[in-house]
Design a protein that fits this description.
The complex is a heterodimer.
Chain A lengths: L10 E4 L8 H6 L7 E10 L5 H14 L4 H22 L7 E9 L10 E9 L6 H4 L12 H9 L2 E7 L2 E10 L1
Chain B lengths: L1 E6 L3 E7 L7 H15 L3 E8 L5 H17 L2 E5 L3 H9 L7 E3 L2 H5 L1
Parallel strand pairs in B: 2-3, 3-4, 4-5
Antiparallel strand pairs in B: 1-2
Helix pairs in contact in B: 1-2
The chains are: A alpha+beta, B alpha/beta.
Chain lengths: 178, 109
């Protein structure tokens, strides 16, 4: 019998009320210039069994804010690959360490001229930093193992940035709705 | 994710269902490689009709299946790709590396 995921305490907090206006309206018309509006926060453990839970949540959110199915799949792919990298490399396969994921809407003043909306994803962990040699590596060749996840993230999103502050790794990714 | 082999006269079809990701791609890889090495049926077919999502570790498992099939002199075929599965193979520049068919009938033809 398959063991249930250890980290079942997925805490989801949405920062948008559906009572006065629709979710889509709020996401597409965020607040002040330069302001990032948090739409969804998830805190979970580094257990790969939870990847499907996170993909479902991010899929619902991206479709809610007007992303096409193809664009939603791109966001999900990038989030999943980013989390898999944290689980495999930053946390070296340990299943009980914390990961935070926050989805933000982006204010209209910060969007490229032809973009209608955007979603920004921030993933943080407290594991080993991604080596610069991996970040600077060229895309993998055909049938070459390794490096495919990062390449998929870069091809799926408009912005992918890795950074480290103190002992925390930050992965920030942005996708625009054109 | 579930993977179930169906043995036919000259082909083994692996029916895969569910999402393929870091949590279960090692299981898919093990099943594929073990069956291929044990049975050595001339045609190995992976039915992805019921797979909505496949990540880079799943793609890597399929690549291992393809490499093993080449080593053993077998044909390795995929069919029933969802838009998401097709996209990930395209982005990985593997769409033309695999033999891909629309459905089981064509995969067996």
């Amino acid at each position: 019998m398959k063991k249930a995921p250890q980290a079942a305490n997925v805490n989801a907090t949405t920062h948008v009320s559906r009572s006065s206006s629709s979710f889509t309206d709020v996401a597409l018309k965020p607040g002040k210039a330069g302001e990032r509006v948090p739409l969804l926060r998830l805190k979970f453990f580094s257990n790969p069994e939870l990847l499907g839970v996170v993909r479902s949540a991010v899929c619902s959110l991206s479709e809610s804010i007007g992303f096409t199915p193809e664009a939603s799949r791109a966001v999900i792919r990038a989030v999943d690959e980013g989390l898999a990298n944290v689980m495999r490399h930053a946390y070296d396969g340990k299943r009980d360490l914390p990961i935070h994921l926050t989805c933000f809407s982006v204010d209209s003043a910060s969007l490229p001229t032809n973009a209608k909306a955007a979603i920004e994803i921030e993933i943080t962990d407290r594991g080993i930093a991604m080596p610069e040699s991996k970040l600077d590596a060229p895309p993998p060749r055909e049938l070459q193992p390794g490096g495919l996840g990062l390449d998929l993230m870069r091809k799926s999103m408009d912005v992918v940035e890795h950074s480290r502050r103190g002992k925390t790794n930050y992965l920030r990714m942005t996708k625009y709705v054109m | 994710m579930q993977i179930t082999p169906r043995h036919m006269d000259k082909a083994t079809i692996f029916d895969v269902s569910g999402d393929i990701d870091l949590a279960n791609s090692p299981e898919m890889r093990k099943t594929l490689l073990t069956e291929m090495r044990d049975k050595k049926t001339p045609r190995v077919i992976v039915n992805l009709t019921n797979v909505r999502y496949i990540d880079s570790s799943g793609v890597a498992s399929l690549v291992e299946g393809l490499k093993t099939s080449r080593d053993l002199g077998l044909r390795f075929i995929l069919y029933g790709l969802s838009p998401g599965a097709r996209e990930v193979l395209q982005l990985s520049r593997l769409l033309k590396i695999f033999e891909i068919h629309e459905d089981e009938e064509h995969a067996l033809a």
